[in-house]
Amino acid sequence: MGGDVGPSVVVGGVKDYLKRHDGAGVRFLMHGDAAAIEAEIARVGLDPAVVEVRHTDKVVAMDEKPAQAMRRGKGSSLWNAVEAVKTGEAAAAVSAGNTGALMAISKLILRMAAPGLERPALVASWPTIKGGHTAVLDVGANIDSDAAQLIEFAIMGEAFQSAVHGVERPRVGLLNVGSEDMKGHEEVREAHRILREGGFNLHYHGFVEGTDLATGVVDVVVTDGFTGNIALKTAEGTARLISGLLRESLSSSLTSKLGALIALPALKRMRDRIDPNAINGGPLLGLNGLVVKSHGGANARGFGSAVRIAVDLGRSDYLAKVAGNLKRLDAVFDHSAHAAPEGVAAGENLQ
Asked: Is-above-0.90 flag for pTM?
C-alpha cells in the first residue's frame, strides 16, 4: 500500500518480476486493501495461484514519523509484511512505503543479526562503466558511523554483492577524501587499519574516492549514511541532467533527430543502464531477516527489480555468511560500546 502509487505498482512489479526473472517456486503474500489488490491482480492478469492476499484496513502513511509508526503500526500492511518474515511465512519482505517506519518496525520485529549492531544499513547498487554494479552502503540509515560500524558495513556489503550480483570475491573499498593512509577522519582511518590487518576474509582494496564510485575499481564502497545519501542523490540528479540534456540535443534540429533515429538502439541501452528503476531495491542489511526497500517513486519495472533482489537474497546464504564474519568482529571491538540506547527508534534521521 506504500509508495507514490500503491497496489498498481506492487502488483505490476510482481508481474514484471515473473516475466523477466526465474520465479520458479516463488509465491507472494500481499498485505493491504484486499479489494484494491485483487482489482489490480485481475487488471494486469497476474496468476492468482502465486498470490495470497491478506486484508488489512490499516496503513502507515508515507509522512508518518518512525516513532509514531512503531506505536500505532501494529496490524498495518507494512507491519504484517515484516511479521511474516519473523514467523517464517515469508523469506523476505519488500516495501515501497515510508523508509523510516519500515526500518524502525523491521528492527523492532526482526531485531538485529548480532547484539552489538546498532541499526540496519541501506545499500544501493551503483552502475559502473565496466557494465556491472558497485554496492554502496550506507546510503541513509546511519548519519554518522564509527570504525566498528564501517567494518560491519564492509562485511554486510561484501555478502550482499556476492549473493545478489554473483561476484565471487568482491573487492571492498572505504570512501575517503584521498587514497593516502593519513587522509580522512579518525574513524575511517581506524577502520582502514583494521580491515587491512584484520582476519575477516575480505578482499580489502583500501581507500577509494568519489570518482571511483562508478569506475568499478571495487565492488563494494563503504561510507557513513550522511555521505552515502548525498552521493546517491547527487548521482540520481546527474543521471536526470544527462538524460535531459541528451534529449534536448537530439531533438534540437532535423539533423539531430535523424542522428538520434540511427543511434536509437545504443541510446536505449544507455537509458537502461542509467535508469534507477533497473537497479531499484535497497536491502536493510544487518537485520535478523530480509527486508528490501523499494523507492517510493518506482514504477512496476522498478518494483520488480526490488523483488528480484529479495528473491536472490532469500535463495542465498547471505545471513549465515554475515553472522560468521560478525563473530570475528566481536574479537576486535567491544560492540556494546556503540550500541544504541534502548528506546531509540531506528530510522529517526530518515526523510
From this structure: no
